[in-house]
Write a structure and sequence with these properties.
Layout (H helix, E strand, L loop, with lengths): L4 E16 L5 H9 L19 H5 L3 H16 L5 E5 L4 H14 L4 H5 L5 H10 L5 E5 L4 H14 L5 E7 L17 E19 L12 H9 L5 E5 L3 E7 L1
Parallel strand pairs: 2-3, 2-4
Antiparallel strand pairs: 1-5, 4-5, 5-7, 6-7
């Protein structure tokens, strides 16, 4: 197997939090990491977001609520952090709702249309937090987590002391009979990156022995890796692979 490296960078993770439509809280994530079927037995989770006024909560999609649930506390603890937001699914379900509404009524809600764009969630985040700082929204493919981290690393190379990274996906609802890859649950993962050498991420040549590509919900696999004692974690793709290493 050719293991040549195309790029490599290191960083520290000061803190991280995750929330999903089935799992929330460190203890629950630890149970899920030990038993993948744990989430299937859990009721739907809808974040309370009691720190927001009711009017603002009502305007948030389910994905945006998970983003606030995962990232709000980190933003409080690490203020003035540039934000990198990445999503594979974006506001896909809201877009489908709009298409159906348009076909039925020949019109759509301007507000809902405005909230269906890919950067709507960080726009709402900025307004909710009254934060006019630097933010980046990425529409990503299968390696969305690693893409977001590479972007955050580049921002730190420009002088940022820390970067808040948020990965969020809300898979297409099953009621839409479309052949599409769907994550096992909606989720949001937030982490604060700082310069350092705690973790090393390398893009390497593809593993020709890999039987299939890694799915786009790499953030969930990363959580399981973080909660394990494994020193390495690999994500395989058609033309390359990402190798995680703990120091």
């Amino acid at each position: 197997m050719n293991s040549s490296r195309h790029c490599r960078f290191s960083f520290d993770i000061a803190a991280w939090q995750a929330s999903s439509s089935r799992v929330s809280g460190l203890e629950a994530w630890q149970q899920w990491a030990a038993d993948a079927g744990f989430a299937d037995a859990q009721p739907d989770y809808k974040p309370a977001l009691s720190f927001l006024p009711a009017m603002q909560r009502r305007r948030l999609s389910s994905a945006a609520r998970l983003v606030c649930d995962a990232a709000w506390d980190l933003a409080e603890r690490y203020p003035d952090s540039p934000l990198v937001f990445a999503s594979h699914d974006g506001e896909l379900n809201r877009s489908f709702e709009l298409w159906l509404e348009l076909m039925k009524t020949d019109t759509v809600s301007p507000t809902s249309f405005g909230l269906s764009v890919h950067n709507a969630q960080i726009g709402q985040w900025s307004m909710l937090r009254k934060d006019m700082g630097e933010s980046t929204a990425l529409a990503v493919g299968r390696d969305g987590l690693e893409t977001a981290l590479a972007e955050a690393y580049a921002i730190m190379q420009e002088g940022a002391e820390q970067v808040l990274v948020v990965i969020a996906d809300d898979p297409m609802l099953q009621e839409y009979a479309v052949a599409a890859e769907r994550a096992p649950m909606a989720y949001a993962l937030a982490m604060v990156l700082k310069p350092g050498g705690q973790y090393t991420l390398s893009m390497c040549s593809a593993d020709q022995d890999a039987k299939e590509q890694s799915p786009y919900w790499g953030a969930l696999g990363w959580i399981r890796f973080m909660l394990s004692d494994q020193p390495e974690h690999t994500r395989n793709y058609r033309h390359y692979r990402w190798l995680w290493q703990k120091s």
